[in-house]
């Protein structure tokens, strides 16, 4: 672990020392309610205000404009305290960071026709790289991961343990796949003929563009034909299901246990909170926000926040919920009126 003075800390995060000695030495990182006199913490959300007022931290990164805090605690103002704290975390954990050591483990299975430079990629034990796959320089294939035939992977990708990338899928640069992710499984496509479900061939692929991250045990189906696409910079949480031919726009956030059915599209910078469900063949506009457990049954405009099932304006949904909570009391009043 590193040691930083308050002055060094402010320089690293482009912050301003609001209170505290510049030579104060900080030796660790911790949450507001767990920090001690030698730790740095941060206030990134107003709901933790009380913890901030009671913290024993040596210093706290706070939003710009905040000048008051608990006695004896140094304050450093930053534009985005959460992001700034992330920079500090890296400073304190430099020795613990992942090290890239190129080479192909003797217990990995790499087809002779696969294209990769053993001196510029890392392939761990148990990994399988199949015929015709192309692995970009700086990429790392974790233990027991399977890279299918004809997969093309860009530079500096990180494929964790037990990931499966099926045939012909495309990955851009700096893609991260967390353990157990499945990219390019068959789309869920069947036709019912004479009472039997007959499988429809899924001959398309999945394309993950630059800087995409896919969470653990998330599954993304290959297209029936064409491509299922995850746009540049989008981040998808654990346990998400995306159907065939889904088009996720750039810089989306999709949170755990959400599902998007086939051929639906999202615009840029869309936020999909936990347990959202979207039917197929619809579109969600740019910068829309779908709050937790929203059910999306038709296309939605961008630049709005939605909730409920079926989805409607979030404020309207909050009003409906507030009214629903009053229902028991209203029923009692109606009963009294009936008795009268």
Automatic annotation (TrEMBL):
CDD domains: LbH_LpxD (cd03352). It comes from the Bacteria. Pathway: Bacterial outer membrane biogenesis; LPS lipid A biosynthesis. It holds the Pfam family LpxD. NCBIfam families: lipid_A_lpxD (TIGR01853), PRK00892.1 (NF002060). HAMAP family: LpxD. Catalyzes the N-acylation of UDP-3-O-acylglucosamine using 3-hydroxyacyl-ACP as the acyl donor. Is involved in the biosynthesis of lipid A, a phosphorylated glycolipid that anchors the lipopolysaccharide to the outer membrane of the cell. This is UDP-3-O-acylglucosamine N-acyltransferase. It comes from Haloferula sargassicola. The lineage of its organism: Bacteria, Pseudomonadati, Verrucomicrobiota, Verrucomicrobiia, Verrucomicrobiales.
